[in-house]
Design goal:
- This protein is of the alpha/beta class.
- Helix content is about 45%, strand content about 20%.
- It is built from 10 helices and 12 strands.
- It has helices at about 5-10, 20-25, 45-55, 75-90, 120-135, 155-170, 175-185, 190-195, 230-245, 260-289; strands at about 10, 30-35, 60, 95, 100-105, 105-110, 140, 170-175, 200-205, 210-215, 220, 250.
- The longest helix has 29 residues, at about 260-289.
């Protein structure tokens, strides 16, 4: 497949579609992203299925369990299992979140927000360095969606994220839906956020859908990955790739997962955007050089 835009766009590999990708191993998408922890057990049926799928599709490993923002140390067993998976699958990328989910070894079923302070910055950077040293490769850090902020924060999320990247040399997984959702919840401008991000550090983009929940006095936007990508997020994507060029792009859908053709149709929307901007993006890259 010589279509560059096709190769750039992937979808999340989720349980309802596992058999479909083993039964029809022709390239329907450019690549697939897994939730790493679902495939840690080397002898599990899921891992064996993944091994088969990985012979036909590039795989990206997206984690939710490193708890990079927690004061707890990195869980040694978790990191060892991640390394074994990465060594076995040889993914095109490995990523996790700017968040925390553990206290004193007890884990929560959520990705919780980090206070943007110098102390938290040191913790996150130290943990990312440890992960990168162990894996022997760059980790991509995803910006969060959040629904509360800390009074103790002394910097913005975008400045914190940028400083982590500069300090550790990690890459960034830019989730445009997370930025859009958080911009409403915390009343900031998406473009202010995006202008602070180094485009060269962005190695992957996530696109997903969200829901609106009405509260007594106002509303909150929730990053559920349960809907099609919204038009404002598509516009953020058009603007980003038009300015900075194509980036490997994932359609993320984790709840109320649709039939595979519907998921692939969302991927095709991203491809069409990439195809429409390729001449302009190529000119921009030449001008930058």
């Amino acid at each position: 497949m010589n279509d560059y835009a096709f190769q750039q766009v992937g979808v999340g590999l989720r349980a309802p579609h596992l058999d479909l990708f083993t039964q029809f191993p022709q390239p329907q998408v450019g690549w697939l992203e897994i939730h790493s922890e679902n495939f840690f057990l080397p002898d599990s049926p899921a891992r064996q299925t993944l091994n088969t799928i990985a012979t036909s599709f590039p795989i990206s490993c997206h984690g939710i369990g490193l708890s990079l923002g927690s004061a707890d140390p990195i869980n040694a067993e978790h990191l060892a299992q991640l390394k074994a998976l990465v060594d076995d699958i040889q993914p095109i990328a490995v990523s996790d979140h700017l968040s925390w989910s553990s206290v004193n070894g007890q884990y929560f079923n959520d990705l919780l927000p980090v206070p943007y302070t110098d102390e938290a910055l040191a913790v996150v950077c130290r943990k990312i360095q440890q992960v990168q040293d162990t894996l022997g490769r760059q980790l991509l850090l995803e910006n969060p969606s959040s629904y509360l902020s800390f009074r103790q924060s002394t910097m913005t999320e975008w400045d914190f994220l940028s400083e982590v990247q500069r300090t550790t040399g990690c890459g960034l997984l830019l989730d445009l839906n997370n930025i859009y959702v958080s911009s409403f919840n915390h009343d900031f401008d998406c473009q202010t956020y995006l202008d602070a991000i180094d485009p060269a550090a962005v190695k992957e983009i996530h696109l997903a859908g969200f829901i609106v929940r009405q509260l007594e006095e106002n509303e909150i936007w929730i990053d559920t990955h349960s809907r099609p990508v919204s038009e404002p997020v598509w516009q953020l994507y058009r603007d980003w790739v038009s300015r900075h060029g194509p980036v490997p792009t994932l359609i993320e859908w984790d709840l109320d997962i649709p039939p595979l053709p519907e998921l692939l149709a969302e991927a095709e929307k991203a491809r069409q955007i990439l195809r429409s901007i390729q001449p302009e993006a190529s000119h921009h890259v030449r001008q930058q050089a």
